[in-house]
Amino acid sequence: MDNFTYHNPVKLIFGKGQIAQVGRDIPKGARVLFAFGGGSIKANGIHAQVVDALGQAGLTFVEFSGIEPNPRYETLMKAVELARAEKLDFILAVGGGSVVDGCKFIAAAIPFEGDCWDIVAKRARLKSAVPLGVVLTLPATGSEMNAFSVVSREETGEKLGFGSPAVMPRFSVLDPESTYSLPPRQLGNGIVDAFVHVLEQYLTQPADAPLQDRLAEAVLATLVEIAPKVMATPPDYQARANLMWCATMALNGLIGQGVPQDWSTHMIGHELTALYGIDHARSLAAVWPGVVAVRREAKRAKLLQFAARVWGLTEGSEDQRIDQAVAKTRAFFESVGVPAGTIAAGIPAEAAQLVSARLSERGGLPLGEDGAIGAAEVRAILEAAA
Amino acid sequence: MDNFTYHNPVKLIFGKGQIAQVGRDIPKGARVLFAFGGGSIKANGIHAQVVDALGQAGLTFVEFSGIEPNPRYETLMKAVELARAEKLDFILAVGGGSVVDGCKFIAAAIPFEGDCWDIVAKRARLKSAVPLGVVLTLPATGSEMNAFSVVSREETGEKLGFGSPAVMPRFSVLDPESTYSLPPRQLGNGIVDAFVHVLEQYLTQPADAPLQDRLAEAVLATLVEIAPKVMATPPDYQARANLMWCATMALNGLIGQGVPQDWSTHMIGHELTALYGIDHARSLAAVWPGVVAVRREAKRAKLLQFAARVWGLTEGSEDQRIDQAVAKTRAFFESVGVPAGTIAAGIPAEAAQLVSARLSERGGLPLGEDGAIGAAEVRAILEAAA
C-alpha cells in the first residue's frame, strides 16, 4: 500500500424526503445560482421541491437551466456571466453528473482571473471557488462526493477534466425517489459508469492492499446483485437507494487510496464521446473489452481475483477463467441495455487511428496504471474492443 | 436502508514518514498542547519526531503526559487547567485510542462553562471545542476518524461516552511504522477491537443494505487474513499498514450508515472494564459470545451470512453453521492472544448481577439494535458468555 492523504469533507444527506431540508445547509443570506439541465426536474417535481425548500429558508435565488450532458464550456460560461452580474455567492446544482461537473467548473470560473478555459486546459491552480451544494437526481458519476469535473468545448471538440478540493460540494442530497422518473437508458448507464469507475481503481496490479481490494469487490458485487431490481418497474426504493450509494462509493476516492489506478478506459472513452457524441457510460463499455484484451498479461493476477471474487469463477485454467470473467462482464453491461465493445456501440473503425492521434497530440499519453499505453496501444485497444 | 447523514471531514494522512509533516496541518501561530500517554513514545522515537516537526513549523507547544488507558476524568482535567492557564488553542494527541479519546474530552472541556463531567454524564451540547489533530500509534479504536470518546471517572467507577462533530480531529497522521514497538498484547487487542466494532454494526438484522453488508465483510475478512502477519516478528510494514486502515475503516462511521447497530457488547464490556480494569478489547471478547448466544434468534439471518461470507461456512444445518462461525470467531480472538468468553478472561460470576444492576441504575438499558436487552438479558448474556 502506498502513502496517501484522504480528505473528503462532503456532507452526504441520504434518503427520501431530504430535498425539503436543502435550505438548511446553505448559508443564511446567500444569493444562490440554482443550476440544472433540461426540463426533466420540472416534469418530475424536483424543481418545485427545490424552489419550496429555498423559499422556506428565505434564500434569494436565480435559475440557470440548459446544462447539457457532457456539459459545454460555452454554456457554462453563460452561467458564470450571470453569477458575476447578479453577485451570486452559492451554487446549487440539481441534476446528474453533468450538471454537477458543470457547476464545479462554474464555481471555479466565477472568481477566476484570466481565460477560464485554462482551468481545464492548463489545470490552472485555483485560489478559490464559489461554494457548491448538490441535489443529485442520477446515480452514476460520483461527482457528488469528489473533487473532479469533466467539461467539453464545442469549438475545439475537446473533453477535458480538472480537479480541486475547492470545488468539492459542501453537501450533496441523495434522494432515491428522485431517480424514479429516469428512463432505463440512464439507469443502465449509471450502473455501468459506477462499475467501470471501480474497475479503473481495482483491475490493475496487486499492491498488498487487501482491504481496498475487498471494498472495490463489495461495490462490484452489489451492483451485479441489484442491477435487475434497479431496472425493474415500478421503481423499487431499496434498489434505487443501493444504486445511489454504490455509485457514490465507486468514486468518492475511498476505494482507490494507496493503490495503482488505471483510467485508460475513461481517457479513451472521453475521446469517443467528443468525436461521436456517445453517452459517457456507453463509451466505457465500448472501450473496456479492448483494454483487458491488450493489457491481459499486466492485469492477469487481478483479472483472476476479479473472476473468483466477483463472478465466482474458480474452475478451469487461468485463461478460461479470465475469458469467462470478461464474457460475464460484457453480458452484465448488455443486461442493463448498454452495448459492450465498439461494434455494438456503433464506433467506426477509423476511431482507432483518430483517438490515438488526438491523445498523442494533446500530450495525453501514456495511459494506464504503469504508463504502458502509448499511441500504438490505444490503437490496439480500440481494434481489440470489437 | 434508512435515511442517513454522513459527514466525516477528518483529513487522513497515511503512510511512512508522514509524522515529519505534522506541523503543516496545524494553523500557523497556534499554541499547541502536545498530549500523550506514558513513556512509550519517548522510547520508540515518536516523541522526538513530533518535537522536530513542531519545531520546524515554528509552533509553540506545551507537553502534557500521563493520559492512561481508559483515560480518567481526573487526569484530563489537569490538562484542561494547563491549557486554560497557558492559553493553548490547538491539541495534538499522540498515542492510541485512549489518548485520542482523552484529548477529545480536553478539547470539549477547555471552553466548556459549568461542570465538565456534564459533557459525558449529561451529554451536554457543545457550543465549541478546541481544534484537535492526531498522531496515531495504536490501530484499534477508530477514534482518529470519528466524533466519539469514552472517558472514565475514578471517583465513581463510571466509564461513559460522548460524541460531537466539534471534537472530530482536523487531521490524523497514521504511520504504520509507529506500531513497530507495540507489544503483542496491544496488537491483538487492536485486531479484536476493530473486528468487534464491525460486528456491532453488521451482526444485527437484514436491512436491504447489501453494500454496507459487503463493506463490513470486507473489513472482517481482511482482519482475518492479515492477523497472523500482524502478529509476526520482525514487523511487516504492509501488514501493519493494512491493520491501521482496517481499524480506521471499522469505526469511521461509513459501514454503519443507514443500518441498525447493536453496541451491546461494548456497553456491557465498558462495565467490566470499569469494575475489573480489564483491557477494552478483552472485555469485548469476553462478552461477545454471550451476546450471540442470547440473541441468536434475532440475529439468525445475519449470523448465517457472517458464517458464509466471512468464514466460508456453507455446509450443514443452519445451527451447525452458526455454531461453527461462533467457534471460529472465538478461535480467531484467541489466535491473537485475546481470551474469548468470561471464564478465560477471568471475570467472576458476580459480574452478571453487578453489571446488570449498574446499567439499570444509570438508565443505560435497554440495549441492542432492537432495544430487546433489558436487565434480565444482560445477566443472561454474562452467564452465557462463559
From TrEMBL, chains A, B:
This is Aldehyde reductase. InterPro entries: ADH_Fe/GldA (IPR001670), ADH_Fe_C (IPR056798), BDH-like (IPR044731). Residues 191-356 form the Fe-containing alcohol dehydrogenase-like C-terminal domain. GO terms for molecular function: alcohol dehydrogenase (NADP+) activity; butanol dehydrogenase (NAD+) activity; metal ion binding; methylglyoxal reductase (NADPH) (acetol producing) activity. Keywords: Oxidoreductase. Residues 9-176 form the Alcohol dehydrogenase iron-type/glycerol dehydrogenase GldA domain. One of its GO terms (cellular component) is cytosol. Its cofactor is Fe cation. Coiled coil: none annotated. The keyword Oxidoreductase applies. It comes from the Bacteria. Belongs to the iron-containing alcohol dehydrogenase family. Signal peptide: none annotated. It comes from Magnetospirillum moscoviense. It catalyses: a primary alcohol + NAD(+) = an aldehyde + NADH + H(+). The keyword Ubl conjugation does not apply.
